[in-house]
Amino acid sequence: MIPTTPAPVIVKDGIANPAPLGLCAFGMTTVLLNIHNAGFFELNAMILAMGIFYGGLAQVIAGIIEAKKNNTFGLTAFTSYGFFWLSLVALIVMPKLGWAPKASEGAMCAYLGIWGLFTFCLFFGTLKLNRALQFVFASLTILFALLVWGDATGNESIKHLAGYEGIICGLSAIYTGIAGVMNEVYGRTVMPIGAV
Questions:
Q1: CA separation for the pair 131, 195 (Å, rounded)
Q2: 80-96 in b/e burial notation, b at 16+ Cβ within 10 A?
Q3: Are 55 and 30 in contact (CB under 8 A)?
Q4: 100-119: b or e for each residue (b if 16 or more CB lie within 10 Å)?
Q5: φ, ψ for residue 195, nearest 5 deg
Q6: Is residue 111 predicted with pLDDT exceeding 60?
Q7: pLDDT band, residue 8 (cuts 50/70/90)
Q8: Region 55-68: what's the mean pLDDT?
Q9: Cα 57 from Cα 53, distance rounded (Å)
Q10: Burial of 179 by CB count in 10 Å (0-12 exposed, 13-18 middle, 19+ buried)?
């Protein structure tokens, strides 16, 4: 019996698809932060490390690769959210190092609000892509709105609700990222993403 080797995945332009990396980096970091927001554990080094290295740097790398693939949407989304995670970690760590005063609730509302507006604008780009990405961006827009509402009112119940909604958003991004890997590896739709 002759052993068979799996057929190699053919990549047309010589550059692998960076979207699964970016989506998994965003999704996994979002899930972990929002498990904290939902009240299950304190903000700790695990979340900050994920924010710097996976949510932050991995997404920036994915965005740069999207630029090489001439994908403006991927470039804009992944590099922006990568730097979102890096800036969020900086907002938490800089006051602890004495580099700047802690951001007020009003400042955090402005920060989260502008990211919500940015996400809402990008949502319209997903209308030409697929249903899975539409869900990721729609649920992320809602997440930012809930976070703003929670900070504006100081209501812990709203912050916990945002945490649960953020877990759903992050899981949807992980699903979309893994679907990109599996569908490419198997050369067929294994995990549907709802092509438009």
A1: 6
A2: bbbbbbbebbbeeeeee
A3: yes
A4: eeebeeeebbebbbebbebb
A5: -60, 140
A6: yes
A7: low
A8: 97
A9: 5
A10: buried
Residue 36 has pLDDT above 60, yes or no: yes
CB 71 within 8 A of CB 53: no
DSSP state letter for 55: I
Q: Is the pLDDT of residue 113 over 60?
A: yes
Residue type, 183: N
Q: Which residues contact 97 (CB under 8 A, 6 or more apart)?
A: none
* Cα 4 from Cα 68, distance rounded (Å): 34
- DSSP 8-state assignment for residue 65: H
Q: How far apart are CA 43 and CA 34, in angstroms?
A: 10
The residue among 20, 129, 43 whose CA lies nearest residue 92 is: 43
Q: Cα separation of 27 and 172, whole Å?
A: 7
**What 3-state DSSP class applies to 39?**
coil
Stretch 17-34: mean pLDDT, rounded? 98
pLDDT in tens, 135-160: 999 999 999 999 999 999 999 999 99
pTM of the model as a whole: 0.90
Please tell me whether residue 195 adopts helix, strand or coil conformation: strand
The mean pLDDT value for 62-88 works out to 97
